[in-house]
Amino acid sequence: MKRTLLLLPLALASCGLFGTPSNYDVTGTLTGTPPTAGNVRLALLGASLGGVVNANVPQIDVSLGNRGVFGVDWPAAPAEGLYQVIAYVDTNSDRQYNSGEPRTHDNQKYLVYSRGGALADLVGLKAGWNLVNTSTTPFTVTQPGRVTGYDLNW
Ligand SMILES: [Ca+2]
After folding, report:
1. Would the CA dihedral through 95, 40, 74, 55 be positive or negative?
2. Residue 56, C-beta contacts closer than 8 angstroms, at least 6 positions apart
3. How far is the CA of 91 from the centre of ligand 1 (A)?
4. Domain assignment of residue 35, yes or no
5. How far is the CA of 85 from the centre of ligand 1 (A)?
6. Tens of pLDDT, residues 92-114
7. Going by DSSP bridges, is the β-strand pair 26-31/152-153 parallel, antiparallel, or unpaired?
8. Cβ(87)–Cβ(41) below 8 Å
9. What is the distance in A from the centroid of ligand 1 to the CA of 117?
10. Is pLDDT at 145 greater than 80 in this prediction?
11. Å from CA of 26 to ligand 1 middle
12. Does any domain span residue 44?
């Protein structure tokens, strides 16, 4: 009995990890079928317009929940710049996206961390996190707080 009581809080805590990630800063759903077999992982990584990875920004490994739902929190001390969440097939099993590994299409939604200033003002960026959606013309810059519907597709 004593052992069961000790395990109960652990069980409850772990349930939170696999529930709907509604409390995360960025949430979305991964759909479609990976182009190759292998371990599918997600990463928050530095990006450039056009989907080129900025290798100077450390990647954050993101867990994929049930039904392809994922959630990720903002990094604690982000560098100023563009970020994206992607899914990829980790063909070399190093838990990092490496150039050339199969990845999801660019969803044209960039997560931009800005410190503000005159240059940022020109394009509508505010200090903190911004969502830049380049799938529309003209592109939009918003500060939604939490980003929902950050959906990914193979
Ligand atoms: Ca890899």
Report:
1. positive
2. 46, 79
3. 6
4. yes
5. 15
6. 999 999 999 999 999 999 999 99
7. parallel
8. yes
9. 36
10. yes
11. 22
12. yes
Ligand 1 geometric centre to CA of 21 (Å): 25
Ligand 1 center from residue 97 Cα (angstroms): 5
Q: Which of 111, 110, 130 is nearest to 120 (CA)?
A: 130
Which of 85, 81, 53 has its CA nearest to residue 149? 85
Residue 103 lies in a domain: yes
> Does residue 45 register a pLDDT over 60?
yes
In terms of residue numbers, what domain contains 34?
Answer: 21-153
Work out how many domains the chain is built from and give that number: 1
Q: What value does the mean pLDDT take over residues 26-34?
A: 94
142 has a pLDDT exceeding 90: yes
Distance 106 CA to ligand 1 centre (A): 18
pLDDT at 54 over 60: yes
Distances, alpha carbon 138 to alpha carbons 45, 70, 132, 135, in Å: 25, 28, 11, 9
Residue 14 in any domain: the answer is no
